[in-house]
Amino acid sequence: MKPILSCRNVMVDFSGFKALQGVDLDVQNKEVLFLIGPNGAGKTTLLDCICGKTRASSGQILFEEKIELSKLPEQKIVQEGIARKFQAPSIFLHLTPFENLEIAMKQKKSLLSILLAKMTQVQHEKIEAILKKVGLFEDRHKLAGSLSHGQKQWLEIGMQLIQEPTLLLLDEPIAGMSGEERTKTGELIKEIAKECTVVVVEHDMEFVRNFSSKVVVMHEGKVLCQGSMKDIQENEEVKNVYLGRSG
Ligand SMILES: Nc1ncnc2c1ncn2[C@@H]1O[C@H](COP(=O)(O)OP(=O)(O)OP(=O)(O)O)[C@@H](O)[C@H]1O
């Protein structure tokens, strides 16, 4: 099977500091791939390179076998179907979940024109479907600022999903969440992966164990190893650099 995303020898140099030192990674269509590894391993930098926030100093990042992402501006990468959710939610707290999704759906217009413009029935239904998917339908008319931390994160995921991405990048999506919210987020990721490939940066090993289809371990700007969670846990190098001897 051809990978949906293929990174070859990707390097990032921050004024002499080599944050990525030749990353080779294939991501298959509709898999839930977890990127793990010690602090500073380069996980976030790799997501930044894929979505165009950071430029690779060399190497290739090929999307859908033909689109060279390392040459494209961020907005064009979004248009190609790659969505990125950052750690901190960037939702409008003084608007409702419904309105937030409305804005995300019509990204390029001004805030006022979006809220004044009439919505088609199809658009309305699309927003409602996303609200149901992320578990916010009941709360769709509350102020987003009054939602729990987990609900705010789900709203932001919904704002990415409404763009109908092919590849969704999530950076530590369960940070700060309660146990119940973590499980719901894992279930949501599994649901999303029916239609979209998902790459998740995560430190919580229980979460990775429960919801990953593939795990990639990064260390010092490179891929150290990859496989199932079981493969990873049995790998001696991974035990040494990350999971510890008891891991
Ligand atoms: N803009 C930057 N300028 C200089 N160095 C940077 C920059 N961004 C990241 N780094 C460095 O690059 C290395 C990789 O950082 P990155 O955030 O990708 O690691 P990470 O694996 O995501 O770590 P964590 O798990 O702590 O989030 C770190 O040493 C970091 O300090």
Would you write up a description of this structure?
One of its GO terms (cellular component) is plasma membrane. The protein is built from ten helices and ten strands. Helix 6 (149-161) packs parallel to helix 7. The longest helix is centred in the C-terminal third of the chain and has 14 residues, at 179-192. It has helices at residues 43-51, 74-79, 97-105, 111-116, 121-133, 149-161, 179-192, 205-211, 229-234, 236-243; strands at 5-14, 17-27, 32-36, 58-63, 67-68, 82-85, 167-171, 197-201, 214-219, 222-227. The protein starts with a strand and ends with a helix. The strands form two sheets. It has a six-stranded mixed β-sheet with strand order 6-7-8-3-9-10, with helices on both faces. It has a four-stranded antiparallel β-sheet with strand order 2-1-4-5, with helices on one face. With 247 residues, it is of the alpha/beta class. The chain folds into two domains: 5-81 and 165-243, Rossmann fold (3-Layer(aba) Sandwich), CATH 3.40.50; 88-146, no CATH class. The mean pLDDT is 91. It binds adenosine-5'-triphosphate. Adenosine-5'-triphosphate binds at residues 14, 17, 19, 37, 39-45.
